[in-house]
């Protein structure tokens, strides 16, 4: 779950008792967020590579598709 506070994203702590958090893939996913990795659909350059069909997104999930600004992320030159 993601929440916004003054334009900065904060992630909830990994809760191993929560359903879906008990396998290594989910743990790796959350660790990558912790060290600064974002989803491809949130990258500042995503519109060069992806087309987002907002009409197909559940309304309360649309914030998951907000762009992460360049000063908060680094693509390391990887497309």
TrEMBL record:
Amino acids binding Zn(2+): 29, 33, 39
InterPro entries xref list: MetalloPept_cat_dom_sf, Peptidase_M12A
Domain Peptidase M12A: 1-79
4Fe-4S listed as a keyword: no
Keywords: Hydrolase, Metal-binding, Metalloprotease, Protease, Zinc
One example of a Gene Ontology biological process annotation: proteolysis
Named cofactor requirement(s): Zn(2+)
S-adenosyl-L-methionine keyword on record: no
Cofactor: binding comment: Binds 1 zinc ion per subunit.
Gene Ontology MF terms: metalloendopeptidase activity; zinc ion binding
UniProt-listed Enzyme Commission number(s): 3.4.24.-
Name listed for the protein in its UniProt record: Metalloendopeptidase
Organism expressing this protein natively: Strongyloides ratti
